[in-house]
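User:
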Amino acid sequence: MRLRLTPLNIFSSILLVSMTYLLLFPDENGWRFLGLVPLAGLLLVSLISDLLFRRLIVDLKRIWLFELLFLIFVAVLIVLIKTQFS
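Assistant: Predicted structure:
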């Protein structure tokens, strides 16, 4: 199986690095452990959606296009939900 780098792979690696940072360098109150929960959820969603995109789309250029559009959609959705509830 070929190794194909995709935007969701890059995003997943950034999430893993940030989760490791939160585990290795906690603050005095321990609130950073609470930040691991949404990051772990995002990691799970990004890994599952990456596998789904890889199975459904064969061409690497289309995978990049659909995954970038997916990341933009999720970012806009997060901003809309955040502004709606604050």
